[in-house]
Amino acid sequence: MWQSGHLGRWACSDRLSWINKVCAMKIVAIISQKGGAGKTTLAVHLATAAAAAKHSAAVIDLDPQGTATSWGDRRRADAPEVVSGQAVRLPALIKAASQNGADFLMLDTAPNADQTASLACRAADVVLIPCRPSTFDLEAIETTLLLAKAASKPAYVVLNAVPSRSFIGKEASDGLTARGALVAPHQLTHRAAFTHGVIDGRTAQEFEPTGKAADEIITLYKWLCGIVGMPTRGQPRRAA
Ligand SMILES: Nc1ncnc2c1ncn2[C@@H]1O[C@H](COP(=O)(O)OP(=O)(O)OP(=O)(O)O)[C@@H](O)[C@H]1O
Ligand SMILES: [Mg+2]
After folding, report:
1. pLDDT tens per residue across span 1-27
2. 175-192 tens-digit pLDDT
């Protein structure tokens, strides 16, 4: 478990402004006020993809439901590290992650647009907004886009659980783009592998390494690396 060092007396928001300036570590905030959009699914799958590519990856679970933390507890592999925390401790947790050598950090958040979501936006290099391609979900992303805008952070909608063999994903993507939103060029299809693997602390790419879900995550992960300016492969970790 990470140790959080002394952080001085800065206010939480001051420390978050400082983080982006001095940390080489890349921070991805995954935010959507809509429950069940796929925040935790994205956080654990992307962090595991980063860990598999030899990055030191971690998830900070800022959701009191603790879904990512429970996933981490069920998991047999060491990586990625999953740490549960409250928003007020976010600067300390990020600093501890950096000091412990993390280079990729996923912030999993609760389904609302509260102070936690706002702080996560401020800490992030990029905000991902998972969204199911139904009209209701599409309406719900507006608030998250505004939060990211207020924090001056780039935000991308990631269409998730898109029905296979349908035009719904393309229609949703076109509709969002027409409304001025940035949409990730890669979508996640509705696939059982995204759910089944997670039940015992794995991910789709571990549950079914050569499956289509694994392919989709790796493609999304590589795109994300390009967005944050991170090499797709990290350095192998040295033995202690
Ligand atoms: N692409 C997908 N295909 C199939 N099932 C999915 C997909 N994405 C997410 N799910 C399932 O949908 C449910 C909700 O996903 P998840 O927990 O990631 O959403 P969330 O946004 O984190 O929810 P909450 O707002 O409650 O934290 C889970 O059972 C998950 O396994
Ligand atoms: Mg969740």
Report:
1. 555 443 333 344 555 555 565 568 999
2. 999 989 999 999 999 999
How many Å lie between the centroid of ligand 1 and the Cα of residue 37? 6
The pLDDT tens digits for 21-73 are 556 899 999 999 999 999 999 999 999 999 999 999 999 999 999 999 999 99
How far, in Å, from the CA of 7 to the mean position of ligand 1? 35
Q: Which residues contact 14 (CB under 8 A, 6 or more apart)?
A: none
Ligand 1 atom closest to the Cα of residue 130 is: 21
Contact 228, 126 (CB under 8 A): yes
Rounded CA gap, 175 and 238, in Å?
Answer: 47
Q: Could you give the C-alpha distances from 224 to 63, 104, 201, 218, in angstroms and in order? A: 22, 11, 23, 10
**Of the ligands numbered here, which is closest to the C-alpha atom of 202?**
1
What dotted CATH number matches 12-227?
Answer: 3.40.50.300
Nearest Cα residue to atom 16 of ligand 1: 38
